[in-house]
Amino acid sequence: MARSGPRTFDRDAALEAATLVFWEHGYSGTSISQLTAAMKINPPSLYAAFGDKRALFTEVVNRYNATYGRFMADAFAEETTATGLVHRLIMGAAEHYAEGSHPPGCLVIAAAANNSPGNAEVSIELADRRNANRDLLQSRIADAIRSGELPADTDARGLATYVVAVIQGMSQQARDGVNTETLMAVGEMALRTWPVQPMSAAGRRG
């Protein structure tokens, strides 16, 4: 009897399904059986196509950042001022995290929740990704201080950490059921604390 060929499936559709499962349940809370059911493949096909659960998750996070979370990379790439960048990051998070067509919050933030000690590497990987964004934001804020966009006494590290804390907090609030309108209001309140360069004496006289 002729042996049947390898099972074929839509790899991108399978990754989309895995993304939603990890996003909803977190890394530790997601089982192989949940993944195979959502991805509509059997365990041997999952391992053959994606490696193990850990490798699949890394691919999912990369895909998330290139799709659902792309608003952050786009903001860093397209905004020329720190003020415009932070406005876009915060309001983009408010619009995205409770949007309704996908699990709430940010996968990179939420998937690390309740990880067991055995999954510490996953938590570290996600923290490294979040910290890289904070460090990049800090660099942009430092540039804005040097250029005169922001006051000279601005604490670049503290301000970057504050912005990240606001965004992470909005992710958790969305997970807790807060809607987009409320998150937008939170974002606007946070932006009112953004430092502004005081007007010069000449500017005040004008």
From TrEMBL:
Residues 8-68 form the HTH tetR-type domain. Keywords: DNA-binding, Transcription, Transcription regulation. Residues 31-50 bind DNA. InterPro entries: DNA-bd_HTH_TetR-type_CS (IPR023772), Homeodomain-like_sf (IPR009057), HTH_TetR (IPR001647), Tet_transcr_reg_TetR-rel_C_sf (IPR036271), TetR_C (IPR011075). PROSITE patterns: HTH_TETR_1 (PS01081), HTH_TETR_2 (PS50977). It comes from the Bacteria. Gene3D superfamilies: Homeodomain-like, Tetracycline Repressor, domain 2. This is TetR family transcriptional regulator.
